[in-house]
Specification:
Helix content is 41%, strand content 24%. α8 links the parallel β5 (161-168) and β6. The protein contains nine helices and six strands. The two termini are 33 Å apart. With 216 residues, the protein is α/β, with parallel strands linked by helices. The longest helix is centred in the last third of the chain and has 19 residues, at 197-215. α5 packs across α6 (82-89).
Length: 216
């Protein structure tokens, strides 16, 4: 109810967030200690983990039967349905740019999507990936964050956050890379069709188990 009021959801939007288990997906992305203490705290610390979900459900794009989906197709679909995408991202996300050009000496680099988070007070870079997460994807995002901070970060901004939005997460890479303890880089899976409640519950339980094992 608090989130519905804060985000000004319509009844239809609230129904969608309930059916896609918005709250559960948000909780499972947080650190274990934050989840356990949430009931006794008026407001959880403003940490990036509190605002990033895994997975993101993008059924509103209607791309589940789209043959040979390319990253450019996914990007265009997200921009065509920007209002729905912002709803799925959650509170605080404000759209800034697509294919943002970063120029360093004679080299040009392009960011798929750039947002600003009004609560975290930082920019959020989103890199879209079709297929499995790779070490190269993580290294590229790390470079993008460092470059963006050097070129565009304002003095009063918090450090930039990067989200790699991929269709398949590689759990070995997640566990044995900087993602395991990163504070600025996150990898989230996306789904192009609405999963059943049982599928979502299984995915959430698996993710929660992974987080608990990581904290031991």
């Amino acid at each position: 109810m608090d989130e519905a009021v804060a985000s000004a959801w319509s009844s239809r939007q609230l129904e969608r967030q309930i059916s896609t288990m918005y709250y559960e997906r948000l909780l499972v992305s947080r650190e274990k200690e934050l989840v356990q203490s949430e009931a006794t705290e008026l407001m959880a610390p403003l940490m990036a983990q509190n605002f990033i979900k895994d997975p993101y459900v993008l059924e509103f794009l209607d791309l589940k039967n789209y043959p040979a989906l390319r990253e450019s197709d996914l990007e265009q679909a997200l921009l065509d349905k920007l209002q729905e995408f912002l709803l799925e991202l959650g509170r605080g996300f404000c759209f800034v740019a697509r294919q943002k050009l970063m120029r360093y000496e004679d080299d040009d680099f392009y960011l798929d999507l750039v947002f600003y988070h009004s609560i975290l007070k930082c920019h959020v870079l989103i890199d879209l990936k079709i297929g499995k997460l790779t070490h190269g994807d993580i290294g590229q995002m790390d470079s993008y964050i460092r470059m963006f901070d050097a070129l565009y970060k304002n003095v009063d901004d918090n450090p930039t956050i990067g989200i790699i939005l991929c269709s398949q997460k590689n759990e070995a890479i997640v566990k044995y890379s900087v993602l395991n303890d990163a504070k600025q880089i996150f990898a989230s899976k996306y789904r192009l069709e609405l999963p059943t409640a049982e599928e979502l519950q299984h995915e959430l339980e698996s993710e929660r188990k992974r987080i608990e094992e990581q904290d031991e």
